[in-house]
Design a protein that fits this description.
Helix content: 25-40%
Radius of gyration: 21 Å
Number of strands: 14
Largest sheet: 5 strands, mixed
Distance between the termini: 19 Å
Strand content: 25-35%
Length: about 190
């Protein structure tokens, strides 16, 4: 997902002869500058490893990706804590939900889910607005160029449609209450 800053169009005044209105100098300066863009990456993985962590660090550092949302980390307990701390030492803000044990007939001792939203330290995150919506959905609100933007990261279970439906309803309820632009991204599996 890429967002582009859209410059204001020049204004016109109606009259006998349409003519271009005098616009403030700063508008012309803003139009003349290169448009800023922000890239938000989304990754659905099967396991969070050292290689994955290094790939994330490289994406943020060398490819100018300031925000990355990751689903299915399968990190829980101490592994979740250690991975989060290692990324934070690399100057990355980490907002995460650990994986949980989901009981199902195919794999009775299987942990599922695990979400992370990672931002570079230069991205202004409104800390009071970070929210765990559900065991499988989370949201953060960032501020860029004077505008707030909510980013919702979710993972819908493919083998438990009841839990996936509950998560969808909670995300819909959360997004419905937002008064700001938002992006919902994640791993929808077969539920879309």
């Amino acid at each position: 997902v890429r967002t582009h800053a859209i410059p204001q169009a020049p204004m016109y005044i109606a009259g006998p002869k349409p003519r271009k209105a005098a616009a403030p100098k700063r508008v012309h300066e803003r139009i003349g500058k290169r448009k800023e863009e922000m890239c938000i990456a989304q990754m659905s993985i099967t396991r969070f490893s050292k290689r994955t962590a290094q790939y994330i660090v490289d994406m943020m550092k060398y490819r100018n990706v300031p925000i990355i949302c990751v689903q299915e980390t399968h990190l829980w307990g101490n592994y979740h804590f250690l991975a989060t701390k290692k990324l934070e030492r690399k100057s990355i803000n980490v907002f995460s939900i650990p994986a949980i044990n989901v009981h199902c007939e195919e794999a009775p001792q299987h942990n599922s889910g695990g979400l992370m939203i990672m931002t570079r330290r230069d991205v202004q995150v409104e800390r009071v607005m970070n929210r765990e919506i559900d065991d499988f959905a989370q949201a953060i609100i960032i501020r860029m160029r004077g505008q707030n933007l909510a980013i919702v990261n979710l993972y819908l279970l493919s083998n438990r449609p009841d839990i996936a439906l509950r998560t969808q309803h909670r995300v819909r309820e959360y997004v419905g209450g937002l008064q700001i632009p938002h992006i919902v991204m994640g791993d929808y599996n077969r539920t879309h």
